[in-house]
Design goal:
Helix content is 83%, strand content 0%. It is an all-alpha fold.
Length: 190
């Protein structure tokens, strides 16, 4: 049983559950759970998984020998790709609702839209190269490329703050992300 729980397919099943729940609610309770909820929830999951992905390094530095920390380190790419998948779902909901209006100059010129599209553009090559073949092919360049996650994370959280009706929750999460990154930098320099 523990082999199944620690397996990559089981992890992906767990990571897919929120998306299945979002899709189910949108399909079967559209009056209660409409476009706004689907966009917000998919965006929240993208941000939460991004925070977890970025928290892996400080966790690894703190708990080097712990089995769960080693497991988490080995699954960091999976978490990052899942974060991108939720960001793609978030973007898909937005484009589905807005259609060609999403490319309208008045819409595309808004700060939160620019931040969101730039974050998505930075995450795209990261998601596409988050596999063993790319790691081997890119060698040291792979790590340099994947440092784009930091500006992409900043843009993601700016997008969240600027697009929220009440940005309090977004600011709290931005503070948590800043704490994670500050702690990571402190641990790496220590």
């Amino acid at each position: 049983m523990t082999t199944i729980v620690k397996s990559r397919p089981f992890l992906w099943l767990v990571l897919a559950l929120p998306a299945l729940w979002i899709g189910w609610r949108w399909q079967f309770t559209p009056d209660e759970y409409g476009y706004g909820h689907a966009v917000a929830d998919s965006g929240d999951w993208a941000a939460w998984l991004l925070m977890l992905t970025l928290a892996v390094t400080p966790i690894r530095l703190l708990f080097r020998k712990a089995g769960w920390a080693i497991w988490l380190m080995r699954r960091r790419r999976d978490l990052g790709v899942a974060s991108f998948a939720y960001a793609a779902l978030h973007t898909g909901f937005y484009l589905w609702r807005k259609g060609w209006l999403a490319l309208d100059a008045s819409e595309i010129g808004q700060d939160f839209i620019i931040a969101g599209w730039l974050a998505f553009a930075l995450f795209l090559p990261l998601a596409l190269t988050s596999n063993d073949v790319s790691v081997r092919a890119l060698k040291r360049s792979w790590k340099r490329l994947h440092r784009l996650v930091y500006p992409a994370a900043v843009l993601t959280f700016l997008h969240w703050v600027w697009s929220a009706f009440d940005p309090t929750t977004a600011w709290i999460h931005t503070g948590i992300l800043a704490g994670i990154e500050g702690f990571r930098i402190w641990l790496q320099r220590r």
